[in-house]
């Protein structure tokens, strides 16, 4: 008899809820930990996923898992440390958030490694809007862990024909891709909001990828990861998909709304807001030039406006493309 995998999802935001639905589709026994489980019951529309009812196969709970085969941490990046610290080390843990911890400059796996030095750990990332995963539409993502065989084994627990979860042993490249794409999406949205044109957006996306490549190289990520789902794949989706909260944040800033008000008006978290300054500091520590990330950091902090942002980027010397 084959064992039914027990998957615990921690965090009932849009992504945690969608991942719980995907895990149930993959045949797992799924529990979804919510900070406020009273708002979620079978058949009822889910708070962070309007238009979707909670399937009866998912158990919503306020009890943290004591036994599981896999734990998916799907809270926002800035709450990963506090959320993970509550979870018993009873199973492999996968961080499903995208970003850099503001106070420490650490990536999700580094945060988890500090808390769970003896556990199997990984990250999940890729071009995935939660509402599309919830609807069962075709998509692909990457599960990365330092151990390639573990990555494949854990990815198999969530894979279905419509959700193709590739394995990777380059968590650094995967995490930098997920963090940087949100910052570049703010730049892309701002360019569109300020009516700078599609050419400007394409240029920002491409130069954003160049920044990501330099940073990843400095931190030991592999170049091919950046051309994969968690790199270019997610950057394309987030810089062009109107559903992206980071893109919409940038759009509002480009239209003249100050960043704090624009962020407050959003439904849900825009990870680029806290990650931009953290990524910029990380780049500075490694002596990596990241003008797009620096400009977004200035826009978000309110130290420059859209006109100055545009002026600064356009005033940069034009050298060799891959210098
Ligand atoms: N929504 C998506 O399409 C999507 C897709 C892939 C990855 N992600 C990533 O998943 C992560 C979570 O995003 P989301 O879209 O599910 O969030 P969300 O915007 O839907 O909701 C935010 C969640 O954070 C929780 N929260 C608020 N304060 C908290 C605290 N102090 N401690 C712990 N949790 C707290 C809220 O209860 C809520 O569940 C982010 O890193 C995001 O980049 C999101
Ligand atoms: O809505 P965003 O900008 O947080 O993007 C959601 C996902 O990360 C897209 O892959």
TrEMBL record:
GO terms of molecular function: glycerol-3-phosphate dehydrogenase (NAD+) activity; glycerol-3-phosphate dehydrogenase (NADP+) activity; NAD binding
Presence of the UniProt keyword Cytoplasm in the record: yes
Protein name per its UniProtKB record: Glycerol-3-phosphate dehydrogenase [NAD(P)+]
Record flagged with keyword Acetylation: no
PROSITE patterns reported in the protein's UniProt record: NAD_G3PDH
Function field: Catalyzes the reduction of the glycolytic intermediate dihydroxyacetone phosphate (DHAP) to sn-glycerol 3-phosphate (G3P), the key precursor for phospholipid synthesis.
Annotated binding of sn-glycerol 3-phosphate, by residue: 98, 126, 181, 234, 244-246
Organism, as annotated: Komagataeibacter saccharivorans
């Amino acid at each position: 008899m084959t064992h039914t995998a027990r998957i615990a999802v921690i965090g009932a935001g849009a992504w945690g809820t969608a991942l719980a639905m995907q895990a149930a589709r993959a045949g797992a026994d799924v529990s979804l930990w919510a900070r406020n489980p009273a708002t979620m019951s079978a058949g009822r529309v889910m708070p962070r996923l309007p238009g979707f009812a909670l399937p009866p196969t998912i158990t919503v709970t306020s009890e943290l898992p004591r036994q599981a085969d896999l734990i998916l941490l799907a809270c926002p990046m800035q709450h990963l440390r506090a959320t993970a610290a509550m979870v018993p080390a009873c199973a492999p843990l996968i961080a499903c958030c995208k970003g850099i911890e503001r106070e420490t400059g650490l990536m999700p796996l580094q945060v988890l490694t500090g808390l769970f030095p003896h556990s199997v750990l990984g990250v999940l990332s890729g071009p995935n809007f939660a509402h599309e995963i919830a609807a069962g539409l075709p998509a692909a993502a990457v599960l990365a862990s330092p151990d390639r065989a573990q990555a494949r084994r854990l990815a198999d627990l969530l894979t279905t024909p419509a959700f193709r979860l590739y394995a990777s042993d380059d968590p650094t490249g995967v995490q930098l891709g997920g963090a940087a794409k949100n910052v570049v999406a703010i730049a892309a949205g701002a360019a569109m909001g300020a009516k700078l044109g599609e050419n400007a957006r394409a240029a920002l996306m491409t130069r954003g990828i160049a920044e990501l490549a330099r940073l990843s190289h400095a931190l030991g990520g592999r170049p091919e990861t950046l051309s994969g789902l968690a790199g270019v794949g997610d950057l394309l989706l987030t810089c062009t998909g109107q559903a992206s909260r980071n893109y919409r944040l940038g759009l509002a800033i480009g239209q003249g709304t100050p960043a704090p008000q624009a962020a407050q008006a959003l439904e849900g978290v825009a990870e680029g807001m806290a990650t931009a300054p953290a990524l910029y500091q990380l780049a500075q520590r490694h002596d990596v030039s990241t003008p797009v990330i620096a400009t977004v950091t200035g826009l978000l902090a309110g130290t420059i406006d859209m006109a100055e942002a545009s002026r600064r980027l356009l005033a940069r010397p034009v050298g060799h493309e891959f210098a």
